[in-house]
Design a protein that fits this description.
Blueprint: H1 16-35, E1 75-83, E2 92-99, E3 108-114, E4 122-128, E5 135-142, E6 145-152, E7 165-174, E8 177-182, E9 186-188
Antiparallel strand pairs: 1-2, 2-3, 3-4, 5-6, 6-7, 7-8, 7-9
């Protein structure tokens, strides 16, 4: 090792007093930061919230028989999303389902599933019936609302691969049923 021709600098020869001064300065900064909190950052004690000890799982669409006529071809759950749609604290599952098809674009159904304790999941609502001959593009469940982009055809001459109509739709639980809340107008793609 080669020695330096320069004199030793003060920070290269630390002593315990240097460490104490650094620790005191850091403690002062932390204390000052604690005193300079905004007024809205005050904490108040509240009564503990009631929570269930075990979370409730959303219904699994893989175990449900959907009301689709597929001629023995079976069904495909293309999309699914959980959410508490009726505000009872238990999640439902919304599933986009269509018949298994070797080719083409089979129409989709949008179904709401629920499940009571110890019971099998079941379909409680059909938001889009496959008989309407729509397919589902974008799909989401947020804040108790189901929204979807429905794709359709203006006539039988339009190839089934290429929908030429698009419609935005959403549903919300009101009272005892799902009510379509928007998207009544269709537009051409």
């Amino acid at each position: 090792m080669q020695t330096s021709a320069l004199p030793d600098l003060a920070h290269t020869a630390t002593k315990p007093v240097h460490w104490l001064a650094t620790a005191a300065a850091m403690a002062g900064v932390v204390a000052l930061a604690g005193l300079l909190q905004p007024r809205t950052a005050t904490a108040t004690a509240t009564a503990p919230e009631k929570r269930t000890t075990t979370p409730v799982a959303a219904p699994d669409p893989a175990t449900v028989d959907f009301p689709l006529e597929c001629g023995g071809a079976g069904t495909t759950v293309a999309k699914q999303a959980p959410g508490d749609l009726d505000g009872d604290g238990r999640p439902e599952t919304v599933a986009v389902v269509h018949c298994d098809a070797g080719s083409g674009t089979p129409p989709s159904g949008i179904y709401v599933l629920t499940q009571r304790s110890g019971a099998a999941p079941r379909v409680v609502a059909t938001l889009v019936d496959p008989a309407d001959r729509k397919t589902v593009g974008e799909f989401a469940v947020r804040e108790g609302r189901v929204s979807a982009t429905l794709l359709g055809y203006s006539s039988l001459e339009v190839p089934r691969c290429c929908p030429d109509q698009e419609e935005q739709a959403s549903w919300r639980w009101k009272g005892h049923a799902f009510v379509r809340t928007s998207g009544d107008l269709a537009r051409s793609v």
